[in-house]
Amino acid sequence: MVWIFIILELQIMKRHLPFxxxxxxxxxxxxxxxxxxxxCVPIQRSEFSTLEDEIRISPEKYCISVSVxxxxxxxxKQPGIDTNRSFAISPSSKRFNLQVTKxxxxxxxxxxxxxxxxxxxxxxIDPSKQSGKDDSIKWKNGNWKMSLFFTGPTSRPPIxxxxxxxxxxxxxxxxRPY
Length: 178
Hints:
Layout: H1 2-36, E1 41-48, E2 55-59, E3 63-69, E4 80-81, E5 87-89, E6 95-102, H2 104-112, E7 117-125, E8 142-148, E9 150-151, E10 159-170
Antiparallel strand pairs: 1-10, 2-3, 3-7, 4-9, 5-6, 5-8, 6-7, 8-10
């Protein structure tokens, strides 16, 4: 009688054994799906290779937000970025012109709270292509060089900076907020 139970148990195990092996093989797939479905997001970050206290950079996909320290808090006397002479050099050593758009939020805030910092959004423009509606070029990961020249009522020396842009994957399931 015991032999019959052992034989029946072996028959049941043979039927369920392939399912158990498949589940073990799929465990890494379920683990990766859990990581990717838990809200992991890519965040672009930057770090300077040269020490610059006069400039701050906050990268996004198609533009970078730049804050530059000036000598005056008066918005009428602050210099602007000269798009004719300013440029960026990509990690692949390609030179790009810069298109400057004003940061409207910081301009509104500066009207009531004077600050010596000017802020702008910089977009890359390929000089070899004709300008059109969709000229957006991504700020890719790697080591960048940027030269900013200024125009305006007050003089400001140019800024030559080197920085690295990299993508950081933030996963709230495994990391604490930063």
